[in-house]
Amino acid sequence: AQTAPFLSSPYYGEKAINCFFDHEYPNYGQDNSIVIYTGERRSNANRDICTLHYSCYAGHPAYDYDLEYEPVLAAASGTVEKAEWNSWAYRTGPNSGLGLYIRLGHGNGYQTYYGHLSALLVQEGQAVVKGQMIGVSGNTGNSSGAHLHFEVRHNGTRTDPYGWSGGYTDPWQAASGEASIFLWSDGQWAGYPLAAPTPYGSAVVVDDNPNNTGSFKKGRSWGSPVECPPGSCPYWWRVTGIGYGSDMYYTYVNGYTADYWAKWQPSLSQAGLYEVQVYIACNHATTWFAQYHIYSNGSPYDTYARVDQLGLCNQWISLGYYYFSGGSNHYVRTSDATTESYSTGRKVGVDAVRFRRVNVGPFEVEDYRERIGRTYQGLYMNWEFRNWSGKPGWRGSGAMQALPKNPHKNINTGYTTASPELRYRTVFPASGTYYVWVRAYGENGKEDSVHAGYDGYGPSSADRISGCGWNSPGWKWCNSTMDGPRATIYVGAGLHTFNLWMRENGFRADQVLLTQDPSYTPP
CATH fold of 204-359, please? Predict the structure, then answer.
């Protein structure tokens, strides 16, 4: 049987294709033309003369997407088979291949490759889920600018995830025996781009300082830490006039032995979902494999990220998304144990770390993936798009209303299969409890409630959302339920379906926001 589509775009939003898969042939041969998945032949395609987004490039066995130091997501659930340098002998140049890369195995004969990365957020043997952030795009390996190399193989043979729609025999299938199949089920190429987390509020920045005061510490002796100062650390060097805040520190790499270390331990006023970013200066940060340890008291395990500092210059790079509770029971730590020999002369740069609060959404209710009408007690009802002139204040292009509104219906039980439904494909950057906020409009007590859930499951913690003044005219955000507690769902990290089910017909929904911050109220 033909494989059903199962891949999601390996990034947030919409990105241009820089380079295509060449169906004649994906073996890096240079014959001055490419044949793309539509069957169209494009000339002037040799790598050094091709036109980006059009004829690049002959022999290419994958797709290059226009991602510049941005999050890279797992295109499908699976296991990390490789997360390393293509070659430790060559960081860049013609012999360096994919540079820093990840290979995932998906258990169905397919593997996906993610190349030219600047950071790895996963380790070999680790299980990952679809939509999980696994790395950051970059410019390592045989690359001429920051982008993401995305490659698919089936039973070891390269294949095109866009399939083959040419009106003649696919040259690559004729040569290899491998039929290219359209594999996209989610994201941009399935018609539904994935929304990135939305930053809000002020970020917390912890910068290095020479006095070891505040939330920054540095020292030596990893096993029995000595802080410097007051201790002596002769192999920490401070450089001024560069980096964030015009200074930074460095020490030399030390193989597999951790000795010199630095630690950033912020005091956070609010619990919630945070993106952690490190600042890499242009100079004195030359390790290929800086190791960052992220500890969150909201996570069941510690997380490690590995960054190619040498390829970065005065920029923030993401280490991923994490739940942190308020206070300071969390940290980011690095050391000189990069696995690189001291004889390489490479340096671990230490500068600032930034903690940015993020939410999922808000997203527009009219931007659903699926809309399902159902018959209840003899009445067929569905969600319909509306942009009423008499009810101003909706956002986006309009809102959705459960119709018809008469005769009145109220569905309290069995609603996951009985109620009209809206489905949204949503990336949850980290596991945990999300507060469900719905912006809606009601006119009376007979059309002022809704149910929410995920992956077709309607938890009692998110049913009968109401009680925020929806029974009087006006668009309002609501997070309360008829049962009293605030509406919440507990979701694992990755790509899921978020569900809205009608409770009362006539209900109008405008936006949804999901947050791990219990103190946040949407504007």
Answer: Jelly Rolls (2.60.120)
